[in-house]
Each structure stands twice: as structure tokens, then as C-alpha cells.
Amino acid sequence: MNPGRTPQHCDVLVIGAGAAGLMCALTAGRRGRVVQVIDHANKPGKKILMSGGGRCNFTNTGTSAANFISANPHFCKSALARYTPADFIEMVERHRIAWHEKELGQLFCDISSKLIVRMLLDECQQAAVRIRTDCAVEGIERGADGFRVRTGHGLFHCASLVIASGGLSIPSMGASGFGYEVARQFGHAVLPTRAGLVPLTLSGRHQERLADLSGVALPVEARCNGQAFRNFMLLTHRGVSGPAILQISSYWQPGDDLRLDLLPGHDPLQWLRDMKRERGTSELRTVLAEVMPKRMAQRLCEHWLPDRPVRQLDEPQLKQAAALLADFPLVASGTEGYRTAEVTLGGVDTRQVSSSTLESRQVPGLYFVGEVLDVTGWLGGYNFQWAWASGHAAGQAA
């Protein structure tokens, strides 16, 4: 940086050109605020671009506070109530972006997530927002008249500073702990972070028995710590993934009891009794293969269930087999970590942040939005809706 360079002035400086940062910038810009966005990455919206398999699961029509994990579960209610999925859909349709509902209220672009990024950038341009990429922050100071932010592109001076730098998930996309460092610098508590919406790893016996089934997917209900998610599980070389596992991973920690219903929607005991009566000569693995992938049925009967004709199973054995199918204990050893995690659990303690404006209660003019806060959504568009809602709330105030 050239120390003699004239500071660049703005009303609002947003650090982070992701979903929450861009939404905050365009909202503040529409109010007539002079807004500058900076990001250390080489282009804006990188995580948006890779989300939803390149189609961007941009919201969920069923969004409520119940779909989020936070030490302060009421915190997200205000912002979510004031900027709803319908509000974002209105903007998407105004930009003529075609979309569809996949399942469970999840909305995706028909064509490409690039259209969502383009929409946000167009809205920023219309609101006269300036965006600068490849711009790393070197230091932040606060004075009587606002904040001074030193960067590789010179000194920025702003009245309001918005931290929209995300969490630790997917470091290959440029994720870092920058936002947590800024929070601590200004006296904010940061709750412990860990990977969320992440594949689980197996070790020992489970890994040995299931690793070669990599690629097999089946519907399950995953249960842990009072939470349950019914969706697909995918077996991998290192463990388990798929929507049901990603969802439950946010509630699981090493040592926690994790159970799977391998026949969700069935009463396993009644089903086994029916099979014994109607298909008694068939092997258990054969009838199981009609309600789950054949390879999974075979593996269960090789290691966990009786490998013989159904008629040979007495009532206690039927009950034992049914109990295992309904409540299969999966002993996970860990997670794949931030490398593949979709989100970061934990973050800036929301008790020190206004739920209506997202402004710091410690430092006037300092705002936190999006994933950097201790608010983490379920899989299925909820984290994007939090980004839009929190960005909008701060953009109306900053």
C-alpha cells in the first residue's frame, strides 16, 4: 500500500462479496448510501456459483426459525420475518430467472447459479455499489468518525462496516477465519466452530464392512440427539454422505449415538411377519433386496442379520431383525471436515448483536451478516435465505 494515497470514502464498506454481503450492499445502495464491497477472492459470489450442483438452491419456501441451529434460537426470527422467501422469489422473477421446486420447498435455478450472481451484481450496479475483488484486508481501526480499513488497494474510510466474510467451510473457495478475528478485535465473543452439513467418516468394523459399497444410496431416517431427518444416505469409500447424513451431521458430535431406520415408512416387524407368511421359502436377503439396494441387503445378511430363508426365523429372531432394521447403530468416527462442509456451525455470539439491525451492541457502526454469525441452517436453501434476510436487515440500517 502507498501510505500517501488518498483514503477512499464511503458510507458503508462491506467486507465479503458473497450472498449476504451482496444483498446487504444492494439494499444499502438503494437507500442512497455510498457503498463499497471488497473481497480477497478473484470474483464475487464464488460459493453461490458452486452451490446446488451449479443450479443454486437459492431459498426454501418453508423457512422458519426452527430450521436453524444457534445458541440463541430466537435471534434469526426478526430478520427472517422481514425478508421472506417470497421477497427473494420476486427479485428472481423480475430478472426473468426460471426456477423450479425440487423437493421439500427447495427452489433451484433451471439453468445456472451464474444467473443469481448476475442478478445480484446487476442490482448492485443499479444501486451504484462499487465492488473490488483481489482486495485483501491488512488491518482495521476505529476512530471517532468511523472505521479505517487498510487493504492492498489502499485505505478505505467508512461510517458503517459490515463483516460478511463467511465461515470456515470450503477453504478452496477462499474461506477463512477473518470475520472471527475482526469480531474478537472489537470485543465480541466467538462460539466454538465446527463443520456442519458434512459427510461422516467411519472406521473399524463399520468401515471394513461397508467401504466397498461406495456409491450405493438408499432412503433412511437418520436420528441423533432428538433430531430426525428422512432422506437418502450415500455410502462412500470413507463413510456416509447424502442429504439425510448431511442434515444429521450438524447435530452429531464424536461419541454421540447415531441411529438409522433402514426401512423408513415401513413397520419392519409387520413386514417381516408378512414375508414369512407369503414368501417363507425366500432368503431374507432376497426379500430385503426388494425394499433396499441388493448389495446393501446382502451385506446386512452377511454381517448383521440371519442369512437364511425367512420361514426359519422364529418370533424372537423376527423381532431382533426388525429392531436392527428400524434402529441400526452407525458408529461414525468423525467428519470430512471443513474441506467438504457446506456450512460452519458456531461463530460470532448473537447475544452481542442486534437481531433487528445486525449491528454490534459493543461497537456502533459495526455489523455482522450471514455465516459468520452463530446461525446455521439446515440443508435445502435455508442458509441462502439467512444470507438474504440478514444482509437485507443490515442493509436497511447501515
UniProtKB/TrEMBL annotation:
Highest taxon of source: Bacteria
RsdA/BaiN/AoA(So)-like insert domain location: 194-343
Origin species: Stenotrophomonas acidaminiphila
Domain RsdA/BaiN/AoA(So)-like Rossmann fold-like: 11-396
InterPro entries listed in its UniProt record: BaiN-like, BaiN-like_dom_sf, FAD/NAD-bd_sf, RsdA/BaiN/AoA(So)-like_dom, RsdA/BaiN/AoA(So)_Rossmann
PANTHER family in UniProt: OS12G0638800 PROTEIN (PTHR42887)
Positions of transmembrane segments: none
Keywords annotated in UniProt: FAD, Flavoprotein
Cofactors that this protein relies on: FAD
Protein name per Swiss-Prot or TrEMBL: Membrane protein
